[in-house]
Amino acid sequence: MNVDASVPPVRTIGPYTLVRRLGEGGMGMVYLANDASGRRVALKVMRPELATQADFQRRFQKEAEAARRVARFCTAPVLDAGVDNGQPYLVTEYVEGPDLAAVVEAQGPMTGANLEALAVGVATALVAIHQADVIHRDLKPSNILLSPLGPRVIDFGIAQLADTLATQSVIGTPAYMSPEHATGERVTAASDVFAWAGIIAYAGTGRSPFGVGGAPELLYRVVHNAPRLDGLDERLRPLVERALDKDPARRPTAQQLLDRLLGRERVTIETATEVVNDIWSPVEGPATEIAAGALRMRRQRKWWLAATAVLAAVAVAAVLLLVVLRPGGVFDQTKDGPLAQRAVSGADYRLDVQIDSLRRAGKTVTVKWSVKYEPADPAGVWRPGNVFGKSGNGPFQFSTDGVVLIDTANGRRHATANQNGCLCSPLYDKEWKKGETAFFYNTYVDVPETAVTVDVDIPTLGHFDSLPIEAP
User: What stretches pass through the bilayer (predicted)?
Assistant: First the structure.
């Protein structure tokens, strides 16, 4: 008898019978399954090691219950959740159709009514999600399925569970993360709106507005660079630009997106869903064929991406990976003042160094710090300085993991590096002006939640002792 390798030896989980594997993600496997009545559902089995984590078990039911409150308009609603033999699982409505990423990769950018329906449909889903006090946190093309009736958003709220995993560093997909998400700030509904804009730009142009590359490079572009939107439908571009504002307070809400897209006030999610159903044309080709076509294209690009990664690694090793952030940006010091500060003096300059904030998001901790450059003698001769320059050009040098976080409870050292590279702001060759302040950040992963105070060691600039970590 032939055994289907895509189905695990245990063919039932809870009251559900597994049919075949649909895919795999960071949280676990997804299967096509049948419930007791024979209805098809999508069943996500969480990774086995999660069962041993008390914090995950505690949050799983809470997040699942929140997700079940989300209305089914333009979403794949959560139907059930449970634990079978120590394995947590989540059940959602099964959506027949390929994901947006596969369609764009296999068939190219979307245009016309379908692009407009996608914009309205995903905005509708976000309104439904936010009305239930849920934040998606990982909205991306692969989390949007294109059903015969229109787009359906999946996996809402599940990303919040990922920060209980010790292996996770940045929770989300870098190309579609908001600036505040990328830098460890509090994630709100505005972050989902930012992701909506990135997805519509991707669907309408065939590329992410912040390009491709490793996580540190993408996160830096998200925080610093203007999005690339050339080629996007001019009717959608102004709204997409507003939703990609670096300041979350200036972005429209999901409801405002919906109102602007349909030219009405307070459009209901029921009405918006009907509009999507009316103007949507089903994507041509079975989902499996479209996914196979996208996979072939990914494999064809694999050698190029590998070569790019090698070149990027060489470039990163050749220059310093701490880049000065623009003054007045998202890394401004906190309103309550710095956690710690000190002055560092040289022959003709003085540096005022501050630790501005130290915040936790799960097991990820972000330090924001700043340096103000002043002449050593305010009355003396001022000469512009190249403080953090290329090798040999400045008095201070840093390695990619130069800024270290030290858990004062157990002495464990954390560096700003993981499998994707340094999670910090890269530093270019910059000549500072008198009195100018530059802002920096460094993000550390897998910092135990028992660590409530830490030391921050910045090479040549100082060691800051016993700083409290601000809880989320």
Answer: 303-325
Q: Tokens representing 64?
A: 């699942």
Cβ-based neighbours of 396, under 8 Å, separated by 6 or more: 387, 388, 459, 460, 461
150: tokens are 């229109």
Q: pLDDT digit string (tens) for 199-218?
A: 999 999 999 999 888 777 78
Based on the residue annotation, tell me whether 138 is a catalytic residue of this protein.
Answer: yes
The residue ranges of every structural domain in the chain are 1-94, 99-311, 340-468
The CATH T-level fold of domain 1-94 is Phosphorylase Kinase; domain 1 (3.30.200)
Q: The domain 99-311: what is its CATH number?
A: 1.10.510.10
Q: Which of 55, 99, 133, 138 is catalytic?
A: 138
CB 117 within 8 A of CB 276: yes
- 99 DSSP assignment: B
Neighbours of 304 (CB within 10 A): 9
Residues annotated within a binding site: 44
Q: Which residues are annotated as a binding site for ATP?
A: 44
State the pTM of this model: 0.63
Separation CA 424–CA 442 (nearest Å): 4
How many CA atoms within 13 Å lie on the side-chain side of 146? 27
At residue 36, what is the residue type?
A
List C-alpha distances in Å: 91 to 80, 111, 335, 388: 5, 33, 44, 52
- Residue environment code for 57-88, b if the CB has 16+ CB neighbours within 10 A, otherwise e: eeebeebbebbbebbebbbbbbbbbbeeeebb
Q: Measure the N-to-C terminal CA separation of the chain; round to a whole number of Å.
A: 54
Q: Token digits for 166? A: 């010790």
**How confident is the model over 230-257, as a mean pLDDT?**
95
Q: Alpha carbon of 163 to those of 175, 263, 335: distances in Å? A: 19, 39, 27
Half-sphere exposure of 388 (CA within 13 A, CB side): 26
Q: Give the pLDDT score at 156.
A: 82
